[in-house]
Write a structure and sequence with these properties.
By secondary structure, the protein is of the alpha+beta class. It is built from one helix and seven strands. InterPro entries: TPD1 (IPR040361).
């Protein structure tokens, strides 16, 4: 009987350990911006870095882009706008603990917010 209880305890602990690696949320996607010091068409250039702080990759990462404007084209393979959403990295997984960057030019910075992603844990 004691062996059976020990077995159940080990199984219980392992179930939490197995799930712990994939408990990713959108709050682990961080977005930081800063002025580069450059100016395009009399508008400051902003540098944006999107970081995936999750232990798993995240694909189909979408950001809120309602009202986003720029006079400097953004590389569509990094950020492509469709309606009120922006797709990051063409939907390709953003690796764990990695980041992507792009620049844009507008009078003020835009408040990008993560909307959704697909968590890819193995």
């Amino acid at each position: 009987m004691a062996t059976f209880i020990k077995f159940l305890c080990v199984l219980f602990v392992l179930s939490f350990v197995g799930k712990g690696n994939c408990q990713c949320t959108l709050s682990q996607v961080t977005i930081k911006q800063s002025k580069t010091g450059e100016v395009v068409q009399q508008k400051p250039v902003w540098s944006v870095t999107i970081n995936n702080g999750c232990l798993c990759s995240q694909s189909d990462l979408k950001l809120s882009c309602n009202g986003f404007q720029t006079v400097k084209p953004v590389d569509p393979s990094v950020l492509s706008k469709s309606g009120n959403e922006c797709l990051v990295n063409n939907g390709v997984p953003v690796a764990p603990s990695s980041s992507l960057s792009f620049t844009y030019a507008w009078d003020t910075s835009f408040s990008f917010q993560p909307l959704s992603s697909q968590i890819n844990c193995s």
